[in-house]
Amino acid sequence: MIDHVSLAVSDLDRAVPFYERAFAPLGLTKLVVRSGMVGFGKTYPEVWINLRAGMAKLSPDSGAHLCLRARTTSEIDGFHAAAVAAGATSESGPSLRPHDRVRYYAAFVVDHDGNRIEAVTFPQG
After folding, report:
1. CA dist list (Å): 111 to 4, 10, 93, 95, 124
2. What is the DSSP string of 53-89?
3. For residue range 34-48, what is the model confidence (pLDDT) as tens digits?
4. In this structure, are residues 118 and 67 in contact, taking their beta carbons and an 8 Å threshold?
5. Which of 16, 18, 103, 120 is 20 to 30 A removed from 50 (C-alpha atoms)?
């Protein structure tokens, strides 16, 4: 249903290496580079990182929230470790989260600009 999303960043030179590292465990790579924007995906740009020069850093509760589906819990572990190593703030480490209707495994990080990035999978059993 959703073809792609865009995240605003204040510094493309800082954001691109961050997202390259954070997205790698999920199988997303840098596919397209244009002036002021970079597209990441598996076969086409599903996530765009767009420069918004002069943008003030957002607080963790005011940026975008992007949730990416992972195939395994180990991909989520890798995503979280890579994102934190690249400078993200861990909002919630990888763990199983049983809720009313679903049981899922997820991790949440906040990028340099206040965008909240989540990776999730739904383990069976």
Report:
1. 19, 11, 14, 20, 30
2. TTPPPPPTTTS-EEEEE-SSHHHHHHHHHHHHHTTPE
3. 999 999 999 999 999
4. yes
5. 120
Under DSSP, the state recorded for 13 is H
Tell me the C-alpha distance between 4 and 14, whole Å.
22
> Which domains, from first to last, does the chain contain?
5-52+62-121 (3.10.180.10)
Amino acid at 26: L
**CB-based contact 63:110 (threshold 8 Å):** yes
State how far the Cα of 61 lies from the Cα of 58, in Å rounded to an integer: 8
C-alpha neighbours within 13 Å on the C-beta side of residue 63: 24
Phi, psi (degrees; rounded to nearest 5) at 96: -80, 135
